[in-house]
């Protein structure tokens, strides 16, 4: 499986218990949504992706705990610490109109109405009230609320977001 075919959804924080369970930090809107996927892909230390079959899981206060069919030993589970967890992009549900997966926004060029390049989306932040684009330019960083007042257009094909945002903001 190639990086482009997968969407990273979190990472393994370490072993949980003695029977091969792992703690997973899920970077998803609904923490337990990863349980919907029967097969998870973990990025091995050598950079290759390897499939694991989801067997069981539970939501804990700070993480998911997960059992894979292929792992029955704490040492093997502990060796998975730090591995990224991904699912195939083709299995993700299509987002509703005017909604986007964060992974699809990262790396897009951000320009204002005057067609001045402000930078690229480096990250997104969840603030509770709304999401915020972290836009990094050559010499600065801007935080732009991802709301209709400021987002004029998102063109995934052109890899560009147009915003109503001045250089002096």
Q: Overall mean pLDDT score?
A: 94
Structural class: mainly beta
Query: Major beta sheet, specifics?
Result: 6 strands, antiparallel, barrel
| Count of DSSP-assigned helices | 2
SSE order, one letter for each helix or strand: EEEEEHEHEEEEEE
Intertermini distance: 42 Å
Shape verdict: elongated
Poorly predicted runs: none
Helix content: under 10%
Query: How much strand?
Result: over 45%
Number-wise, the strands total 12
Trace the largest sheet across and list its strands: 1-2-5-4-3-6
User: What Rg is obtained from the alpha carbons, in whole angstroms?
Assistant: 19 Å
Give your account of this protein's structure.
The model has no long low-confidence stretch (mean pLDDT 94). By secondary structure, the protein is mainly β. It has a 6-stranded antiparallel beta barrel with strand order 1-2-5-4-3-6. It has 2 helices and 12 strands; from the N terminus they run βββββαβαββββββ.
What are the SSEs and their pairings?
Elements: E1 6-16, E2 21-26, E3 39-43, E4 49-59, E5 64-68, H1 74-79, E6 84-88, H2 102-105, E7 109-112, E8 117-126, E9 131-136, E10 141-145, E11 151-155, E12 160-163
Parallel strand pairs: 7-12
Antiparallel strand pairs: 1-2, 1-6, 2-5, 3-4, 3-6, 4-5, 7-8, 8-9, 9-10, 11-12
Please describe the structure with a list of short key phrases separated by commas or semicolons.
169 residues; mainly beta; 6-stranded antiparallel barrel; 6-stranded mixed beta sheet; 12 strands
């Amino acid at each position: 499986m190639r990086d482009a075919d997968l969407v990273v959804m979190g990472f393994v924080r370490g072993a949980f218990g003695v029977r091969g369970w792992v703690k997973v930090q899920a970077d998803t809107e609904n923490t337990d949504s990863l349980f919907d996927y029967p097969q998870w892909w973990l990025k091995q230390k050598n950079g290759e992706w390897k499939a694991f079959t989801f067997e069981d899981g539970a939501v804990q206060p700070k993480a998911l705990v997960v059992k894979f069919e292929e792992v029955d030993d704490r040492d093997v589970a502990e060796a998975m610490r730090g591995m990224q967890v991904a699912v195939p992009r083709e299995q993700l549900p299509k987002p509703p109109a005017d909604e986007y997966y964060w992974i699809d926004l990262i790396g897009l060029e951000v320009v204002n109405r005057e067609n001045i390049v402000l930078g690229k989306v480096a990250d997104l932040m969840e603030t509770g009230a709304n999401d915020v684009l972290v836009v990094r330019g050559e010499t600065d960083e801007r935080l732009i609320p991802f709301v209709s007042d400021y987002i004029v257009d998102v063109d995934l094909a052109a890899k560009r977001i147009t915003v109503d945002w001045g250089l002096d903001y």
